[in-house]
Amino acid sequence: METGIDEGFLGRVYRTSAVVWAIGTAISWGVAGPAAAVGWTVGSALSMGVLRGFEWMARRSFVPGAHETRRDFARFSIVKLPIILLVLVGVVLIGGRSFEPIAAFCAGIILTQAVIVLKALGLVIVGRSE
């Protein structure tokens, strides 16, 4: 079993997030219907996509001698905001006057961050027991 925040930590976060996404999709569909499942899926995809984008840019930009890629990092940071806005508008339009898809979307948005926090807490607990 891997312990610590190492090179494979983000890979484990992606895998765990995918499993939690699948479970959350089934639960949201069963509790609130297909629109909520779509909201959960879009929020989860956006959450994982933002993390993946920052990982990609960080690996590309923060290396010695990579001065021009820092400009790309700034562009990426600015371009992602209108994309996130369009996704939010789409979710609101899909949800219409219904609260469930929007709530499921918001829950999906925090999926990746929640997985990271829980994995980090798990590492702390495992570290204290050793």
List the helices and strands and how they pair.
Blueprint: H1 9-32, H2 34-61, H3 67-95, H4 100-109, H5 111-129
Helix pairs in contact: 1-2, 1-5, 2-3, 2-4, 3-4
Shape annotation: flat
Structural class: mainly alpha
Q: How far is it from the N-terminal to the C-terminal residue, by CA?
A: 14 Å
Provide the succession of SSEs. HHHHH
Q: In percent terms, what proportion of residues is strand? A: under 5%
Mean of residue pLDDT values: 85
The strand count comes to 0
Low-confidence stretches: none
SS field, number of helical segments: 5
For the biggest sheet, the summary is:
none
What share of the residues lie within helices? over 70%
Number of domains: 1
- Rg, please? 17 Å
Description:
This protein is mainly α and 130 residues long. The protein has one domain (9-123). 85% of the residues lie in helices and 0% in strands. The chain contains 5 helices and no strands. Helix 2 (34-61) runs parallel beside helix 4 and helix 3 packs antiparallel against helix 4 (100-109). The protein is flat and about 50 Å long.
Summary, kept brief:
The chain has five helices and no strands. With 130 residues, the chain is mostly helical.
Key features?
mainly alpha, 130 residues
